[in-house]
Amino acid sequence: MIEKEKLVERFLRYVHIDTQSDDTDTDRFPSTEKQLNLSKLLADELIALGLTDVSMDENGYVIATVPSNIDTKVPVIGFLAHVDTSPDMPGNEVKPRLVENYDGGDIQLNPEVSITVKDFPEITAYKGQTLIVTDGVTLLGADDKAGIAEIMTAVEYMVTNPDFKHGDIRIGFTVDEEVGRGVDRFDVKKFNADFAYTLDGGRIGEIEYENFNAAGAKIAVQGRNIHPGYAKDKMKNAILIGQEFNAMLPALSQPVHTEGYEGFFHLIKFEGTVEKATFQYIIRDHDRAMFEARKEMMTKIATCLNGKYGENTIHLELTDQYFNMREKIEPVFYVVETAVKAMEAVGVKPLVKPIRGGTDGARLSFMGLPCPNLFAGGENFHGKHEYVPVESMVKANEVILKIIEIISPFEGL
Fold first, then answer.
1. Residue 276's CB: how many other CB atoms inside 10 A?
2. Rounded distance, CA 1 to CA 129, Å?
């Protein structure tokens, strides 16, 4: 059904385009102009495929419709992916390599970097398959260019196979997902879908309709710099005070010690001198009450340290980022059940699990568009050990088409 070579060619072409987003404080949207290069390319490709209502706005959002070829009124389904890659790892000069008929052992990416079975035992599940890997210097970009390639290949299939019957299918490509602002300006009303799926998950079979509640914390520490020879009872070292703040958080409540539904505090950035220091955290928890308790804990620590070192020593800024979409998906749970049915129909074992992160779909669900997340096939996102099995991408493509096929006669809305 799917031309694997076209799917791979698309993906390799997309990963060569640098679309890294920027997580520094900025009012610019999207956060980097270079994301627009891929958005424009995708819009042009959709037009070349014959779609007539393709739009790309000033924010870099691309929206298009594969028009219905049936007379029956059926739900409008959306499929979305994001163009940007993580700001935490270089995304330029990506040099992907195909490892055909993977032998189940370690993969040498360059003389210094390998994907080892010891560190990444799950890779052995792909023995005999074709893996696309990096050169050990940059990320690969399967998050989420694998999702983009899968959606675009599905669009081409529908356009070139008129015997494949379907209702209206909405296509959306977003920006800045990796910095938590991916749908800040997305027009859900214009997208006009009854429900949608993001193709932004990891390994084959993943279906995710639960995600973390998420917040960001910025901590500014105002110290007092005094010549160290005369500092007794006068100096306030902002670096050490910041370290004290961090030490007051639960030691086991870090990403390295947590899994499943367990939440965490994650220190992601530190800059400082004796006079001033800044610490930046992300806060995550699936349970809303525990999420609020985590934020309250940070507030109490800041109050405690201000009492110890003086008022305004610690300035804490907490910002909610997104919430658990489960409450928005459960009332329309057939969207998950449909995805499960589609996976089973194409020979994929469904893996329903909570997202230990977030997607555009989480925020879209709270904006009125129920939007669970499906696998795109990649592993080890955001790093130089990232890889994607070609066979997983093919199956993701088949799942898209099977969902459409299942929904086409559905009249439940």
1. 15
2. 19
116 CB-contact burial (10 Å; exposed 0-12 / middle 13-18 / buried 19+): middle
Report which secondary-structure segment, H or E, holds 191: helix 188-191
Lookup: tokens for 274: 């004796």
**pLDDT at position 12, please?**
98
Please report the pLDDT score of residue 412 as a whole number: 41
Query: Which among 338, 320, 310, 322 has a CA at the least distance from the CA of 401?
Result: 338
Question: Angle at the Cα of 267 (from 263 to 272), degrees rounded to 5?
Answer: 160
Domain ranges of the chain: 4-210+324-407, 213-322
Nearest to 371 by CA among 382, 355, 395: 355
The residues facing 211 across adjacent strands are 355
Which residue, among 129, 108, 105, 109, has the nearest Cα to 117 in the 3D structure?
105
CATH of 213-322, one of 3.30.700.30, 3.30.70.360, 3.40.50.920, 3.40.50.300: 3.30.70.360
Q: How far is 261 from 277, CA to CA, in rounded Å?
A: 32
Q: What is the pTM of this model?
A: 0.86
Distance CA 68, CA 39 (A): 24
CATH code that applies to domain 4-210+324-407 = 3.40.630.10
What length does the chain have? 413
pLDDT score at 210: 92
Low-confidence ranges of the chain (pLDDT < 70): 1-2, 25, 409-413
The strand order across the sheet containing 97-99 reads: 97-99, 131-133, 387-389
Quote the CA–CA distance of 19 and 244 in Å, as a whole number: 37
Q: pLDDT value at position 409?
A: 64
Cβ(2)–Cβ(157) below 8 Å: yes
Q: How far apart are CA 168 and CA 161, in angstroms?
A: 15
Active site residues: 84, 177
Query: Is residue 201 within 8 Å of 45, Cβ to Cβ?
Result: no
